[in-house]
Amino acid sequence: MKETIGFPRALLYYYYYPAWRSFFESLGQTCQVSGKTTKAVIDSGIRVTVDEACLPVKAFHGHVLSLSGACDRVFVPRLVSVEKKAYICPKLMGLPDMVRHNCKGIRQIIDPCIDMSRNSRAYIKELYATGRLFTRNPLKISVARRKAKQAYEVFVRLLQAGLTPIDAMAKQDFHLLQYFRDSGTSCNTLSRHDEDVRSPIIGVLGHPYILYDSFLGMNVLDRLHLMGAKVVTMDMLQPAVVEQAAAKSQKRVFWTIGRRLLGAGYYFLMPGTVDGCLQMSAFACGPDSFIGELLQQESARSKQKVPFMTIIVDEHTGEAGVLTRLEAFMDIVERSMLR
Ligand code: SF4
Questions:
Q1: Cα 128 to Cα 118: distance, rounded to the nearest angstrom
Q2: 241 in ligand 1 pocket by Cβ < 6 Å?
Q3: Most Cβ neighbours (<10 Å): which of 75, 86, 96, 316?
Q4: CB 287 less than 6 A from any atom of ligand 1
Q5: CATH T-level assignment (fold) for domain 4-173
Q6: What global pTM score does this model have?
Q7: Mutation probe of ligand 1 site: the residue of 92, 93, 281, 315 with most atoms within 8 A of C-beta
Q8: What is the number of the ligand 1 atom nearest to the C-alpha of 90?
Q9: Chain mean position to CA 272
Q10: Ligand 1 center to 74 CA (angstroms)
Q11: Which one is the CATH code of 190-338: 1.10.1060, 3.20.20, 3.40.50, 1.10.3470?
Q12: pLDDT per position in the chain (339 positions), as tens?
């Protein structure tokens, strides 16, 4: 039977929705994404979560609640690990339990456990178990799995070609091959000498669910564009560049996104890569608190300083305050470019 699967537009939706959508659509299901984050969504999430939860987790709950009545089941995966010897934040590991406990009106949750830390067999078993909710035909599930993998690979290529996840998702629907033919490239190791040398290049760090959510991220990417800056996020860098820079850390960071943030941050703070580095962080985020500290230390150590600023967002952050800080930051960047 055809069902509607609800996808909260929050947390790792920004990385994995293209693959998830492809998987469920290949099995003949309809995908329904919650609307954009608004104050009402955040407020409803805050009402059902504990105070200690970080803002993105509160927002996730708000998105789940907004799907109530609009779908047959809500997709809330238990994300443990997406690569060997590295893990996702524990709050994402416990997400299905939190949602079940906090969102009473939600009828059914699909919660496969994604754990690739040891081998891929357990993960494949989970995919088949999820597929069997809709078909008894293993061949169909196998095709859905292959299509999801292809969709994800194309999505990653688009990110590395310089698109944000939002733009990449839109591009995936339209004229994809034409896009690659026109752009002729799939990677972008940064070079300040490429083009547009007068525009400041700002490296922006942050979890995807903050940066690309215009409400949580206070539209920072658009604001920087409007201020004349060229923006580069960690997702636009080649993984090898990020890994190489992250290896500078004395101890390997075992959080997947934390390690990427640190690597991209170290790379952005190298003189000659970008003109300024901005970190967007969530209040009450454990991994961000020490990544931010390590980057502050790196910035302080560097002789040829790249301007570096951290903005911490929570449910009380106002746009006016963020705008003032951004303007001051861009003034510093422009002055440092004159040196
Ligand atoms: S990494 Fe930080 S912001 Fe993301 S879910 Fe964990 S605590 Fe929240």
A1: 18
A2: no
A3: 75
A4: yes
A5: Rossmann fold (3.40.50)
A6: 0.90
A7: 92
A8: 6
A9: 26
A10: 21
A11: 3.40.50
A12: 789 999 999 999 999 999 999 999 999 999 999 999 999 999 999 999 998 899 999 999 999 999 988 899 999 999 999 988 899 999 999 999 999 999 987 879 999 999 988 777 888 899 999 999 999 999 999 999 999 999 999 999 999 888 999 999 887 664 444 444 454 443 344 445 455 456 899 999 999 999 999 999 999 999 999 999 999 999 999 999 999 999 988 888 889 999 999 999 999 999 889 999 999 999 889 889 889 999 999 988 877 789 999 999 988 888 889 999 999 999 999 999 887
